[in-house]
TrEMBL record:
It comes from Halalkalibacter akibai (strain ATCC 43226 / DSM 21942 / CIP 109018 / JCM 9157 / 1139) (Bacillus akibai). Belongs to the aldo/keto reductase family. InterPro entries: AKR, AKR5G, Aldo/ket_reductase_CS, NAD(P)_OxRdtase_dom_sf, NADP_OxRdtase_dom. The keyword Transmembrane does not apply. The active site is at residue 54. One of its GO terms (molecular function) is oxidoreductase activity, acting on the CH-OH group of donors, NAD or NADP as acceptor. It holds the Pfam family Aldo_ket_red. This is Oxidoreductase. The record marks 79 as: Lowers pKa of active site Tyr. The keyword Oxidoreductase applies. Keywords: NADP, Oxidoreductase.
Length: 279
């Protein structure tokens, strides 16, 4: 169980991944992303999650270079965007991400969306397998994959994804998907764990937060961790980055966990992976 910011889960290939990290979706390239990543590293974060789409890989790389933490102590994730799906174009996108990040390897590389209408995610996965075999990336995974997409990968490829990063929060608990991932030793990871602020006024979570003297956000992140879901809350404010990490000194009861899970409405704030095919 996660007991500190440096606590890790062990992926099915033996690589250790921090339970809690910083997401940088919609964080502006330049000083904004540099400052937020440096604040996170200074606060003890060791996992940073970016993507080709976010257009801030250079700033993330700059922040890492300017931090006093060695690269090998950090866990760096990026993702290939939909318009680069396909074998050769995925390899090229990976090389470009490395260049922008100023590193010669990634800790985790993901397919950002399955894009079933485009129909290239199996071919794209085979490129990730090659990058993994070549030692360019320590672990490979997917993002926004439903059970059917995962089954295609498992049935047609050699390596089972190590991670599936999906929209996950108390209003979208993805129970069937989570069970499937557990069965196949695929680590579930939450993006938008706070539903972009949409859950911060929820009375059920507020009541639990008041009991522990914690914020609603901290209770939600604790719920993630106790559900064995890696989580990457985004913030650009140093005090909020610190606050999001202050979730290791309390534990929700089984009853409280159940109350939060019961808020599920299968409600998405992002696209449906079965229908999203934007390039």
């Amino acid at each position: 169980m996660a007991t500190s910011l440096q606590s890790t889960t062990t992926l099915h290939n033996g690589v250790k991944m921090p339970w809690l990290g910083l997401g940088v979706f919609l964080v502006e390239e330049g000083q904004e992303v540099v400052s937020s990543v440096k604040a996170a590293i200074e606060a003890g974060y060791r996992s940073i999650d970016t993507a080709e789409l976010y257009a801030n890989e250079e700033g993330v790389g700059q922040a890492i270079a300017e931090s006093n933490v060695p690269r090998e102590e950090l866990f760096l994730t990026s993702k290939v965007w939909n318009n680069h799906q396909g074998y050769e174009s995925t390899i090229e996108a990976f090389e470009e991400s490395l260049r922008k990040l100023g590193t010669d390897y990634l800790d985790l590389y993901l397919i950002h969306w399955p894009c079933p209408g485009i129909g290239k995610y199996v071919e794209t996965w085979k490129a990730l397998e090659q990058l993994y075999k070549d030692g360019r990336v320590r672990a490979i995974g997917v993002s926004n994959f439903n059970v059917s997409h995962l089954e295609d990968i498992i049935n047609q490829c050699e390596i089972v994804p190590m991670v599936n990063q999906v929209e996950y929060h108390p209003r979208l608990t993805q129970t069937e998907l989570h069970e499937f991932c557990k069965k196949h030793q695929i680590q579930l990871e939450a993006w938008s764990p706070l539903m972009r602020g949409g859950l911060l006024e929820d009375p059920t979570i507020n009541e639990i937060a008041n009991k522990y003297g914690k914020s609603t956000a901290q209770v939600i992140l604790r719920w993630d961790l106790q559900n064995e879901v890696v989580t990457i809350p985004k913030s650009i404010k140093a005090h909020r980055i610190q606050e999001n990490a202050d979730v290791f000194d309390f534990e929700l009861t089984e009853e409280e966990m159940g109350k939060i899970s019961a808020l599920n409405q299968d409600e998405r704030i992002g696209p449906d992976p079965d229908e999203f095919n934007r390039l």
